[in-house]
Fold:
Amino acid sequence: MISKNKGETVSIVLDGKEVEVPAGINLVDAAALFKKEIPHYCYHPQLSVAGNCRMCLIEMGTPMRDRGTGEPVLNEDGIQKIGWVPKPVIGCATTVSPGMHVKTISDKVTDCREGIMEFLLVNHPLDCPICDQAGECRLQEFATDYGRGYSRYVERKNVKPKRTRLGPRVTLDDERCILCSRCIRFSQEVAKDDVLGFVDRGSYSTLACFPGRELENNYSLNTVDICPVGALTSTDFRFKMRVWFLKEAPSICTESSAGCNILVSSREGEIHRITPKRNDEINDSWMTDSGRVLYKQVRSDDRLLKPQIRQEETTLEEAISSAVQTLKGKKLAVVGSCNSTLEEFYLLNRLTKAVKAKKYLRGHFGEDDGILLSADRTPNLRGSLLSGFSSVYPKDNLSKLYNDLKKGTVDTLLVLNEDLLSSGVEAESLMGVPVVYMGTHAHATSEIAEVTIPTLTSFEKRGTFVNRSFFAQGFAQAVPGPAGLLPDTHILCKLLTGLDEECKLSPDLSLIWKNLSSPPKSPFKGMTFTDALRGSLKIDGSKWDELPFVEKKALHFESPSKIAQNS
Amino acid sequence: MLKKFLKNKPEEIGEEVLKSGMRGRGGAGFPTGMKWKFLDRKSGKPIYLICNADESEPGTFKDRQIIHKDPHQLIEGMMLSAFAIQAKQAFIYIRAEFFEGAKILERAIAEAKEKGFCGENILGSGYSCDLVVHRGAGAYICGEETGLIESLEGKRPNPRIKPPYFPAVLGLYQCPTIVNNVETLCNVKHIMEMGGEEFSKIGKPNNTGTRIWCVSGQVKNPGYFEFECGDLTLGEMIHDVCGGLLPGRSLQAVIPGGSSAKVLRADERFKGTLKDGTDFDWGIEDIPLDFDGPMAAGTMSGSGGIVVMDNTVDIVEAMANVNAFYAHESCGQCTPCREGSLWMKKITTRMCSGDAREEDADLLLSVANQIEGRTICAFGEAAAWPTQSFVKKFRKDFVKKAKSQKRKKDSMQLI
Structure:
């Protein structure tokens, strides 16, 4: 629950200690501010409060007032008496109020937690050894932290459906379900696709889709993430890997300009899944299903792994020097990709300046879903603007390049990651035009390239993307790249040095940021790459308000024209 | 009657009801006038009146009789109450099993509308209130007011969390709503007829008016009987009104207010001080039938369903019956009631099928304690109280059950 009245605080007494907390938050969040855990299953900060798991039962009291007069009731010491509520209250549905007393640890609270844990486990199959959630399961964690450690249950357990297909990507094990209703509320409130519900009654309640419907929206896998137990599992990840072997690294999703914060889980350099990382300014705790499968590109068959000169494998050194020879002293054009990082754009821009090359940029567009998949299907279009590489909106494909090629004003190409032939450039116009291609995957352009230099995917390098709301978000390397390859920034620096011997740019991202933020009117004034890695940096993008950005109103996003109207 | 009051101010009806001291007849016994006072009238949202005719408490069958025998009394009471709270729409939520009752009510409403007693411009007063009968789908939990509201909205009847969803503020469709029992709303008619002051003279202070008691179980003449509150004792009810127990039987236990009330043991003594300061020392047959009497005896008059059990009743079997009901009717929303009620059912069913253990009594009590007071709605208490009281008061029967069953030792390896 995020406080609505910003800045206002109230003072409450938490376990005997007076503390200041933001007004309007609930007790679970208030206690969390002071590193006190109130265990909970059904409560999720970004969903409505259901209050059904009863795990967050605590003791609460408010200062007593006389019913008739409204005067404070004092005890012998002249201190206002506390009227403790006789029944325990649920922390998730109790909003802080001035003078409120809260006990998160007491015999009664302990008894409540032990009772609830015992109840939750009586009909639970306890199949942890074969459960995908094991290791990141709230039921396991809280059973260890707050349970009795033994069970008094000797009756027959309820039998419910196993491995039910809820949709193309989600599989349900009903016996493990603790009926917290998080997934139902998520589908209703965030995905706006009300397909889930409970059928049957009491302990026999079962999660199910409405007849004839499936959980198939593009956000269905978020239900797996928020499921506190192993009931909802990802069909893709199911039985693939024990989660405790996975190393989690934060990164940024490259699917669209929404710039979702993600966690990349890998084991020994191989990515096994991608899950969203909470960021209340960008993506809350959600991401699209389509963004989660992007990791499969890392080890796909068409991945470029070896540098090539005229389709012959070679070393990286030779490929780069051959590229320098190809590019030198020609009527060069650079085709940039909105998948490049801010730092790569900066270096690319320096390179075009050094050799006076023409600049082209390819954008990719699709449908806006109004939540976290924006119409701009590239992560860093705004980075191209901020770095100075581009000042026009890449709405059209590369037909301008095609015209320039036909006119002969361009006779050599440096292409980053884009396929020219599917972007409005006809193959015959490339006859006799040497192409240097830097990219991650093979396609028609890489196959006709004079020199092909494989680069790294966003999971394998560091950099910064600027999202649709002009938040600059740094990301670090999540997994090592294929052996022998270098990050794009290193290759660009080597090319730059080869083309312009006086240029002594470093591929170090911190130094690039220093250069980015040094001009007096730089939008990055006073910011460093470390800042961008730590959190989302809001950049002033008002300079580009007039550009025809395609994004529509979505989660945490208002289109620039709308912002202008509001102000 | 109706005509006379529709000319007056709506608040006057509320005042009279408050003056009458009438307490709700649904089970909790909360003063009706007070409930109406909590209504949020300033929100600008429409106000709704709902009649709770989802009479599902085992042992209770009073509302059904009112609906069958005198539906117009209810309609008149509802129209007066609707006028008092200025509701433009009123509902009668009737349980699914009362299909005959629903038919009767619909016919009665049609008749009342024809005569102008409800609907548009009631009796030319300019006040309009529509009345609709809504049939439930067969769930005990719909008798819980917020569950009822959810059900009326067309959803699963999962009770709402309070706070913030108090019906008087955020009820039906998030609008202020009053939910009253059938008998309560009928009494409104009588209060207005005789005046709140006069009504309060019936019965005893704080226990005003009459109540319909439903007596079932092993008595000669079970049935429903209307008496002034406190006019007779439990013993008089059983022996004089209902003709006493069957020949040769003796009293073992009585559930005084529907199955969720705590059971009373025939040889118990109840001692203490009443609210008015008088000391009492009652046997089970001395308990006065009103609101405060059973309360003083540690139980409640609830919905007025008196279940009499004589010495032929196997207490554990009775407990199993009650537990089976609550396990079947728990909505499944919140953990303690959902898992606890079924667990208790499984224990008592097992005890009755030859696998009782001596420790089961303690286990039952502990499970019930883990439910009580920790649930979203009062169903948790309703399920826990019978178990708590049965086990506490008849522990010997539970232990005897285990001892009498000649089990092999290894049959402890259940399932």
Summary: The CA atoms of residues 372 and 381 of chain B lie 5 Å apart. Chain B touches chain A at residues 139, 156, 158, 161, 163-164, 327-336, 338-343, 346-347, 350, 363, 366, 369-370, 373-376, 414-415 (CB under 8 Å). The first helix of chain B runs from residue 2 to 6.
